[in-house]
Every structure is written in C-alpha cells, then in structure tokens.
Amino acid sequence: MNGYIDDNKPLKLNIGFIGLGKRGRDLLKLLADMPDVSITALSDLYEDRLQEVFQLLSEKGSPAPFCYKDYRDVIGHGEVQAIIIASSWTSHSEIAMAAMKAGKPVASEVGGAASLEECWQLVRTYEATGTPCMMLENCCYGREEMALLNMVRQGMFGELIHCQGAYGHDLREEVAKGVENRHYRVHNYLHRNGDVYPTHGLGPAAKLLGINRGNRFTKLSSMATKSRGIRQWARKNMGDDHPVAQTDMALGDIVTTMIQCANGESILLTHDTSLPRPYSRGGRVQGTRGIWMEDGAVIHIEDRSPAHEWEKFETYIQEFEHPVWADYLKDGVRGGHGGMDYLCLRAFIESVRLNTEMPIDIYDMAAWMAVTALSEQSIELGGSAVAFPDFTNGRWIHRPAANKTAYAL
C-alpha cells in the first residue's frame, strides 16, 4: 500500500517527524493532540531539542517516540507510515525525496529552492515512485484566504486579472541572532539575494488562479534594494563589535518580483523582512468585478458596494465562509497562526488516510519553490525576465481539477 492507511492497519497514523526547531515544535504540539495520530519517531541534529520534545510527549502521556540524529533512521523505521519535515529550508528536498523513495507519504514545511534542478528532482522522484508529497503552506488555509477562494469560485470578482502577496515581517532580531540561536535563516540572508520565502504570498494566489490546472507561471522579473536594515539593527542592539554589525547581508531589504501567467494574469510578490514594520502578507485580489485588499481588510464589488467606496471585508466573510472554516468554527479553532496550522496538517493527514492526491501537490511545491532560484537569476541579470519551467511538462493545459475532498483547494 506504499505506506498508506487502509482498513487492515491501525487506526492511528504513525508519523515520523524531522526537525525540532521552533516551527517544528509548534507543529508537533498540534499533532500530539490529534487522536488519530501517533508521533512514532523524531529526528534533529541537536540532542537538547530531542530531549525537550521527548519530555513534552511524555508529559502528554504519549507513547515514547524513537529518537535519532539522522533523518534516514526515521524514514527507515518500520512503524513509521508518513513523514513530516520541519527542518532547515535547504534540507527539505533531500529529505522529501528520501521519503518518497521509501514509499512513505511526506509533508514538507515551506521554503525556497536553491536551484531549478532541485525542483526537477522533486518532480521526477514523485513521478518515479508515485509517493505523494505535500507542501505545508498554511496560509492557503487561512480563514480570509479560504473565503476569498470561495468567492472567486462563485464568480464574485469576475475574471481575475491581478493578485499580490508578500512576506512582510520584521525579522531583524531573528536574523541578527541567527548564529547564536542556531537558526538557518541568517545563512540564506548572508549568501543569497532573491525572494527566499515566497510561498506565503504566492500559494493562495496560485490556487485562486488555477496554477498547474489550466494555467501556469510563464516568466518572472525581480529587483532588490540595497541591504541596510539588519546591520543597523545589530549595531544598535548588539554593538559595533558584533559580527553581524560588521557584515552586509547579500539579501536586499526589499525584493520585488512580478510573475506573468499563461492566461494573462500578473502576480506581484514582495519579500520585506529586514526593516521595521508590522506583519502583513500584503494580499490583493483584483478582477473585472471587484477588488479585495488585506491591508485595511477592505473590499469593493461592483454593483454591490457603494460606488467608489470600500467596504469592510468582515461583512463578507460570514456570507462566503468556506465550508471547511464553517465546520472548524463550530468545532473550535485550534493551534497557531489563527488556526490555519491545524487545518493544513489535517489536510495532509486526511489525504494520506483517504489515499487521495495532496491539495498542495508536488507540482505546486516545485513551482512555488522555484521562485527563489529564478528571482536570484533575474536580480543578477538586472531585473531581466527569466522563463519559468513547466514542471507538469504540458499537462497543466488539460489537468483536471483537484480532488473534491473537504481540504482540496
């Protein structure tokens, strides 16, 4: 059964969990409270993280998990039926491919690709093994994002023309203290100049636009500003002698990327994490009948909204609540990031249990991750447009709509 759950296997899905940094621990806590999940095996490079999570699971009364330093021991463990990856960005693909080759469905936390070849390897591994792989892009399961998806499907925006998304998050302290706190993000900022974290803004837009199912990305163009924010923060808060205060980041403080789609739409992405700012994903959905903007939480629908005036989006959410969220609100919202982390994990668990295709599949994963490598190329070329690979090899033209399960996007 390729590691899937069926009627002859235990009711609980045995998970192997790889990567126990802050993000990993947050996800693991959610999984540990799910009655149909068992955390069977853990892996992390650092012993203290393994011990902390082992203690956490013990306090919850969960069965003691097997603990390993090497992720391959988790994948190879006979009782493990599915894998979740929450390790550093540049390790995701390697681990995901190892899981697919072992026949174990795998879900990976988000991040950008180091190269286009990495994306192609993911796709080829999936096509050779048939083992499903999902990207855990939690923002696709946000309440607002799912309500917008429902509205788009019902034609409220007319024909879509343009979408925007961003990762606007003041990460100066996290990056500046990255070495001391063993956080991998700083190493990417030191050595790369591109949109290193594109999927929070891109994922929901891609689902709205039917990317890889009747539409695809065709080209992109990126530009980056100079780098000042993190170094100045380090000087102010850690002193002129701190290594970060003496080092320029390769990553520009603001990276802007424009993507063209095959059906004529455009997507504007912004990576903005090195300057003082409140959090925002900068969402915008615009079509022939209306526009929604995340900042301000406002919407305008022609022939419904007052002429030339914004309305508050909250007045629309209940009317166009996605069925998943309608049920979720009744049952009780759980977990971090407003509840979307829990829904994203459940989407993976249910897809494994029902043996259905993943709602964010390998072709989505490859296309979204590729933005990082392509944006680096475009910036090096002075903002010139670069062609976007078609990871479906033409199948996007007639590829059927996604499965009809509750969590399908």
UniProtKB/TrEMBL annotation:
Domain Glycosyl hydrolase 109 C-terminal: 146-312
Segments forming domain Gfo/Idh/MocA-like oxidoreductase N-terminal: 13-134
Organism annotation: Paenibacillus campinasensis
Keyword GTP-binding: no
Cofactor(s) required for function per UniProt: NAD(+)
Family classification: Belongs to the Gfo/Idh/MocA family. Glycosyl hydrolase 109 subfamily.
Alphabetized SUPFAM superfamilies for the sequence: NAD(P)-binding Rossmann-fold domains (SSF51735)
Alphabetized UniProt keyword annotations: Glycosidase, Hydrolase, NAD
The protein, known as: Gfo/Idh/MocA family oxidoreductase
